[in-house]
Design a protein that fits this description.
The strands form four sheets. This protein has a six-stranded parallel beta sheet with strand order 2-3-4-5-7-9. Strands 11-16-15-14-12-13 form a six-stranded mixed beta sheet, with helices on both faces. β2, α3 and β3 form a beta-alpha-beta unit. It is of the alpha/beta class and 507 residues long. The longest helix has 24 residues. It is built from 17 helices and 16 strands.
């Protein structure tokens, strides 16, 4: 194990300690190992870093050979946002599906099983769950990542998720404070603005966060959103009124405050990542998340130097940086203690003990989350290989376009010979020509937000009334089709549950 080098002074080590950078590749690059030796205390993992549970366990072991208390973080919400199963699709439905079932014990069991898989791979900080109240159905970035539009429902499932993760030693990072649900702009692209009064914020956005704090969430992630009632000038990530005044002082949160990705345009386009990072730490943040896009040593050095220089010029109080670094180390100590107690588990293995209803809890949850609506005529199950027309919107950055979605692969497993095509417009004639005499299964995602999807369904159902419609996003549009299946998310297990319903085993 590498110890901290003598040449790195306390200020430099503290600046490195508050960074949570990403990197490229499935093994730790030399620069990352060197920076861990210099004082870097956290690393963020993305889909590009993961090939298999065994590889991931080897990677985290490699990192901890340099420093055994390094925090290894990941953005693993389950459902649409998965890094652990980025190439296959998640074994767990996402928050919207769990919220639609509204069984907190099921949510706790899903989070516990997901946490066990992460812990077995050496991951000990999960940037999840989303405590956003999805009050705006046009929201392009939260949607199915939220448990739903009701603050109390979101609160109880956020608590269950935090309990499930932390019960197996994986720190939860409840996000996106103070609430990203009432936006119609993706903060990866621009700065969203929420103009509601304080009473609304307290009655809606803040309810799940209060509950998560009371439940002991170890971390909270800030949002790059402007809430004019709290701070009309700076986004939450950079706002002392929001991070220190509201989160620390009013809500009493004592854990780790992590920023959302600093290269997101909501901050980077206006402030730049160096200035943004200084302002975030000064405002009360403790850890700077970066690396979804910028994932090289140069980025780490730029942010380290920006923080050091800000202290030396008096812009950033040295005690504020030291306090932030101390909070990172405190969380690292908590996770290290849990790892020590859980030593000996098989890398990548799912431990079954105590996880009712077992390691298939994700599929159980996905099946329970289905809402199946029959059309006016008696439904004839699909018993021969159909044609699946997937109407595919542009993926938001958080979900990414690497992860497969839909039900074609699961229908192919049940009905060999199933064919599929992907469409980005209302190509009704193209679908009909490709389908021929086959039954058509039309798969959509947030049809209510995409008029072209609605037009495509209009045309298909007019030409082929026996078409089956599967909605894998927010279930906001009126059900239609010979059979309408709402999965409440696009995880792989949601596709499997939907395919079972289409062929009649679950309808």
């Amino acid at each position: 194990m590498t110890t901290l080098v003598h040449g790195a002074d306390t200020l430099t080590r503290d600046a490195l300690t508050v960074l949570q950078p990403g990197f490229a590749g499935t093994t730790a690059p030399d620069w990352l190992r060197r920076q861990i030796g210099e004082g870097l205390s956290s690393v963020g993992l993305f889909g590009r870093n993961i090939a298999s549970p065994e590889q991931l366990a080897a990677l985290t072991a490699q990192l901890r050979a340099e420093r055994d208390d390094v925090l290894v973080a990941i953005d693993e919400e389950g459902g649409d946002v998965t890094r652990l199963e980025v190439k296959q699709g998640s074994s767990f439905p996402g928050s919207y599906a769990l919220g639609s079932v509204d069984d907190v014990e099921l949510t706790r069991a899903v989070a516990r099983e997901l946490g066990r898989r992460l812990a077995a791979c050496g991951v000990d900080l999960n940037w999840a769950p989303s405590a956003d109240v999805n009050s705006n159905a046009e929201n392009p970035v939260i949607g199915v990542r939220s448990f739903g539009p009701d603050p109390d429902l979101v609160a109880r499932h956020t608590v269950a998720y935090v309990d499930g993760l932390q019960g197996v030693g994986v720190a939860a990072c409840t996000k996106h404070f103070p609430g990203h649900g009432d936006t119609n702009v993706d903060s990866h692209d621009a700065l969203p603005r929420i103009d509601v009064d304080l009473a609304t914020l307290h009655a809606r956005e803040l309810v799940p966060f209060r509950a998560a704090i009371a439940a002991g969430t170890k971390a909270v992630m800030s949002a790059h959103i402007l809430l004019s009632a709290l701070d009309p000038h700076r986004p939450a990530t950079l706002s002392p009124q929001i991070l220190t005044g509201l989160l620390r002082q009013e809500l009493g949160f004592e854990g780790l405050i992590v920023t959302d990705g600093m290269e997101m345009q909501a901050v980077a386009a206006t402030y730049g990542i160096e200035r943004g990072s200084v302002l975030a730490i000064a405002a009360g943040a403790d850890a700077i998340c970066v690396g979804g896009g910028l994932c090289d040593e140069g980025t780490v050095l730029r942010l380290r130097d920006a923080l050091v220089n800000a202290v030396r010029t008096g812009e950033l109080p040295e005690e504020r940086l030291a306090d932030a670094a101390a909070r990172v180390r405190a969380l690292a100590s908590w996770t290290q203690a849990h790892r020590a107690r859980g030593a000996g588990s098989t890398p990548g293995a799912a431990v079954q003990e105590g996880t009712a209803p077992g390691v298939d809890v994700g599929l159980v949850a996905a099946r329970r989350a289905l809402k199946v609506t029959r059309g006016a005529q008696p439904y004839t199950p699909v018993t021969e290989a159909p044609y699946v027309a997937s109407f595919t919107p542009v993926a938001n950055f958080a979900v990414g376009d690497e992860t497969p979605w839909g039900i074609a692969a699961e229908l192919e497993r049940l009905l060999p010979g199933t064919e599929t095509g992907s469409y980005a417009d209302a190509s009704v004639d193209a679908v009909l020509a490709a389908a021929g005499e086959r039954r058509i299964v039309a798969v959509v995602r947030d049809a209510h937000r995409h008029p072209w999807m609605t037009a495509a369904l209009d045309g298909l159902l007019a030409a082929r009334p026996d078409t089956v419609v599967v909605e894998m996003g927010l279930n906001e549009a009126e059900p239609r089709g010979a059979l309408h299946v709402a999965t409440h998310g696009a995880a792989r297990v949601c596709g499997r549950a939907a395919a079972e319903a289409v062929v009649g085993s679950g309808a």
